[in-house]
Design goal:
- By secondary structure, this protein is mainly α.
- The chain has 8 helices and no strands.
- Helix content is 62%, strand content 0%.
- The radius of gyration is 16 Å and the shape is globular.
Length: 162
């Protein structure tokens, strides 16, 4: 179950399967509005059903659990030429609001969700995800996969080496 959640977050943008600011808050926003927004964001974050998102994405982009397990353990898929698992990652990232419409990644959202999967402080996840978010891939599936791969490889290097 932990592996599935890690993969989901990791999977925590992108165009069609063939390879595919907000306005700033007003300066005069009062404290009660800011507090309400924070509480709403926290509620949204705690309500994310990563397993449900993964199952939903797996309906369209079939990926077997052992394949995802390999990704979770090594940071890459066994066959990096197969677009289906990469598009699965894209789907999960989009549905979990990590991948945004402007082809960017929300590193704050990544940190919020990733922390639910691994016991790593959000600040550290932010530090790892930020450099990984600057992607040049034109294919949204590839971009999503490379983003998550970058984060996973960094996490594995830092925490899973024995």
């Amino acid at each position: 179950m932990k592996v599935i959640l890690i993969i989901t977050l990791t999977l925590i943008t992108f165009s069609n399967t063939k390879c595919e600011k907000k306005n700033e808050n007003k300066m005069n926003t009062d404290v009660s509005t800011t507090t309400t927004m924070t509480m709403e964001e926290e509620a949204r974050n705690s309500d994310v059903d990563l397993m449900g998102i993964m199952l939903d994405c797996n309906d369209t982009f079939r990926v077997e659990m052992p394949y995802l397990d390999t990704f979770n353990k090594s940071g890459s898929f066994p066959d990096e030429t197969d677009r289906t698992p990469k598009c699965f990652v894209r789907c999960v990232l989009e549905k979990s609001e990590v991948a945004m419409e402007d082809n960017q990644f929300n590193v704050t959202r990544t940190a919020e969700l990733f922390q639910q999967i691994r016991d790593i402080p959000q600040e550290e996840i932010l530090e790892m995800a930020t450099p990984c978010s600057d992607r040049s891939e034109s294919c949204k599936c590839e971009r999503s996969y490379q983003y998550l791969k970058c984060i996973l490889e960094t996490v594995i290097d830092k925490y899973d080496t024995t």
